[in-house]
């Protein structure tokens, strides 16, 4: 098993239920070991969970191996879709951001949160905001 | 054994009442992590403790498998009850949070805080008139 990670900027910190970024695993069963977001804008609420649909990404980006000698990741992150991820009814984590901007949160999953083949995990807004931010994932594959 | 978790939002702000709980009706399950975080700017004090009674949840939500290939979770979390939880004699953890949206606390239990099957709930208890919006989550090994 090796570790992979990637951080992408997102301009999706805008609409209620908009997905900030997601991660999918077309092959194998990678496990999320860490995820984070950083927001430039305040007064937003966030939920992290498994998408209820099968999103179709545009320009998905593979996670980067944390060991330079490692193999390629099977997981891809995206912030843009032709079929956008739909938020779950019940998330694994939910948090409110500060009223000031420029803050973030990191969650770790020491035993790994298994994505499942062709499943999607993401961060969604549960309120309306304006702004940009960054989302990152780390996987064990 | 597998890992499960779930996050809910509670609007129960009343002092001397549970904001939320987790229980398992049929298995001995272990709490590996508990988290609380304010969604409203009210200075708040919470305790994490075992209910003195056996509560009956209303609309309990099952925890979610962190491995997609595992069976559905059995522990359930709730923010309402037909038999309300009663106050723990003592608390495993207590925390006071400032009147700041986003303030929170994460407690971890590397060896597990065991819930007895069909017995008491583990409560997030309001030790003051607290935030009317509380995000909370439990990570379970069951």
* Oligomeric category: heterodimer
Average of pLDDT of chain A: 91
Helix segment tally of chain A: 0
Main sheet properties of chain A = 6 strands, antiparallel
Q: Give the uncertain stretches of chain A in residue-range form.
A: none
Give helix % range of chain B.
under 10%
Q: Could you state the order of secondary-structure elements of chain A as H and E?
A: EEEEEEEEEEEEE
Q: What is the CA–CA distance across the termini of chain A?
A: 5 Å
- Work out the largest interface and the residue count of each chain: A-B, 27 and 24 residues
Broad shape of chain B? globular
Order of helices and strands of chain B: EEEEEEEEEEEEE
Average predicted confidence as pLDDT of chain B? 96
Largest sheet of chain B: 6 strands, antiparallel
What do you see in this structure?
The complex is a heterodimer of chains A (141) and B (142). Chain A is mainly β and 141 residues long. Chain A is 0% helix and 50% strand. Chain A is built from no helices and 13 strands. The termini of chain A are close together. The N and C termini of chain B lie close together (5 Å). In chain B, 0% of the residues lie in helices and 52% in strands. Chain B is mostly beta strands. In chain B, strands 6-8-2-12-4-10 form a six-stranded antiparallel β-sheet, with no helix packed on it. Chain B has a five-stranded antiparallel β-sheet with strand order 7-1-13-3-11, with no helix packed on it.
């Amino acid at each position: 098993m090796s570790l992979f990670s990637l951080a992408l900027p997102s301009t999706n910190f805008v609409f209620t239920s908009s997905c900030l970024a997601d991660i999918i695993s077309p092959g194998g069963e990678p496990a999320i070991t860490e995820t984070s977001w950083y927001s430039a804008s305040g007064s937003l609420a966030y939920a992290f969970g498994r998408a209820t649909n099968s999103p179709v990404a545009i320009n998905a980006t593979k996670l980067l191996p944390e060991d330079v000698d490692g193999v390629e990741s099977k997981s891809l992150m995206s912030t843009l879709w032709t079929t956008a991820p739909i938020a779950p009814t019940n998330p694994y984590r939910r948090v409110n951001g500060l009223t000031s901007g420029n803050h973030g949160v990191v969650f770790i999953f020491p035993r790994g949160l298994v994505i499942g083949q062709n499943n999607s995990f993401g961060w969604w807004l549960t309120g309306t905001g304006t702004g940009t931010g960054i989302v990152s994932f780390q996987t064990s594959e | 054994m597998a890992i499960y978790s779930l996050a809910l939002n509670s609007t129960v702000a009343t002092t001397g009442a549970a904001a939320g709980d987790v229980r398992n009706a049929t298995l001995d399950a272990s709490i590996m992590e508990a988290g609380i975080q304010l969604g409203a700017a009210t200075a708040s004090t919470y305790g994490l403790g075992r209910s003195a009674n056996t509560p009956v949840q209303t609309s309990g939500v099952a925890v979610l498998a962190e491995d997609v290939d595992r069976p559905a979770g059995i522990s359930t979390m709730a923010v309402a009850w037909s038999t309300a939880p009663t106050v723990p004699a003592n608390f495993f953890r207590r925390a006071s949070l400032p009147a700041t949206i986003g303030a929170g606390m994460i407690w971890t239990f590397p060896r597990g805080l065991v819930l007895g099957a069909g017995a008491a709930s583990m409560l997030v208890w309001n030790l003051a008139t607290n935030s009317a919006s509380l995000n909370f989550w439990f990570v379970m090994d069951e």
